[in-house]
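The record is passed on directly below:
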Amino acid sequence: MYDNKRVRDYMVPVKEYPVIYEDYTAAEAFSIMRESFHQKDGTWYGFQSLLVINDREELVGILTLRSLLKAFKIQAMLDHLLKGDPMGLFFMPRFHNSLQIVTKDIMRPLSLITVQEDCVIFEAIVTMVKWKINSLPVMSGKELVGIVRTIDLFWSVGEFLE
């Protein structure tokens, strides 16, 4: 039975996933990701990644919550360096906007790690564990059709164990 379960049976369809442009700042991306969360019966639900498109509306990557948190750490270090030097205070207003981290600099390119929609769930689990990722783009040939997340695979394993 477990061998019959395919990634397409558990993925979130691409049309249901939040999307941002590659030139959005990390702060803008964080805001959009935060908007996807909602609370129900004391539990938070939402997406921990965003699909990234370019100005031609082509999907080019995936931005994860982990990448955003790393970006904020880098931004905080840059801000600290500029504020720590008295000369940095002079130049900070002028250069602060140019130091804003943009999505295309911190996203994972779509082509790097993917899985086909007809592969078995176990293959997706192995891929996610191997690459230490929580969101995996699902392809039909070369077309992105969805995203499978660790929580989706968690439920599939639960069904197998029943």
